[in-house]
Design brief:
By secondary structure, the protein is mostly helical. The protein is 73% helix and 0% strand. The protein folds into two domains: 98 residues, Orthogonal Bundle (434 Repressor (Amino-terminal Domain)); 38 residues. Helix 2 crosses helix 3, helix 2 crosses helix 4 and helix 6 runs antiparallel to helix 7. One of its GO terms (cellular component) is cytosol.
């Protein structure tokens, strides 16, 4: 094989390898976004149907996004984030599980759900404690 032919083979192989790496990275990113959306949806106690309704998309699309089979546009990602009461940045924040701090807004909302029907004084006290805890976390 002459030198020119050898260079073309190396260049083609490099492009192919780079293409496969990019595709693998794309798949991994889609999965991470989907996992984060699923985690936040479940933290709110919502079904895929409820998230879909609030975001104005089909529940099948939510399922595909959560499984990493679909790559949502920035617009759809924003609609999902708004529905989940968070920001697109939070959905794309991939720290290690041990480094992740719970979203105080989600915790606060879950706490309020648990306190429905409880005496008003008790609810007010726990609400103040939760607000103070959320302030300290930030």
């Amino acid at each position: 094989m002459d030198m020119e032919c050898n260079d073309r083979v190396i260049a083609a192989t490099t492009r192919l390898s780079h293409s496969k790496i990019m595709k693998a990275d794309d798949v991994a990113l889609r999965r991470k976004v989907g996992e984060e959306i699923r985690r936040r949806r479940r933290a709110l106690g919502w079904s895929q149907e409820k998230l879909a309704e609030k975001a104005g998309i089909s529940f099948k699309y939510v399922s595909k996004i959560e499984l990493g089979f679909s790559n949502p546009s920035v617009t759809i990602l924003n609609r999902i984030a708004v529905a989940l009461k968070t920001s697109p940045n939070d959905l794309l924040d991939f720290r290690l599980p041990g480094e992740r701090t719970p979203d105080p807004r989600i915790l606060f909302e879950k706490l309020l759900e648990l306190l429905k029907g409880k005496p008003k004084l008790q609810v007010e006290l726990i609400k103040r404690l939760a607000e103070e805890a959320a302030r300290l976390i930030k």
